[in-house]
Write a structure and sequence with these properties.
Layout: E1 4-6, E2 13-15, H1 17-26, H2 28-35, H3 43-80, H4 84-94, H5 98-103, H6 106-128, H7 134-145, H8 153-173
Antiparallel strand pairs: 1-2
Helix pairs in contact: 1-2, 4-6, 4-8, 6-7, 7-8
Length: about 170
Amino acid sequence: MSIFNKNKKTGEDVLSRESLENLAAEKPVAAEVVTEKELPVNSENIEQIQTEEKKVLEAVKEEVATSKSSKSQGDDKTTTEKTEEQIAIENIMSDGIAELYNELPENRRAEFKQKGELTAGKIELILNSAKVKFGKIVGLLKKWLSMLPGVNKYFLEQESKIKADQIVDLKNRN
């Protein structure tokens, strides 16, 4: 007895139901295939499958949306609570630039402070990663310091490298 039968419509060889059941008894993967619900292909079944897929897709979209909103709410809590490490990083960042900070207009001070806190948070994430990338820390500090008026690029480069060295030393001490 052959395990294949000829399909009457297409003339192709296909596995017979009996041979599939025999294979299912021998191999567990085949059992899963045999036990799945088989639907003949017609327009009603295609529409049914499409509506089921749409329902699953909508459920996944809702799940992703709720997980994103809960993550963003959780992120808000973490940004308001500063860790000791982040406070130490902010102290290093603000060291020696008080005079330049005082020259800023009031509205730019708030923006500079906010950017500094964000930069400190990013630096903390870099420090907590497996490999500390010194260049990224220098780049973040340089971008933050560039908000100060009247500083040249050599000052930015030098000051950002000095502060990055101090921050990496802080990490190594802990």
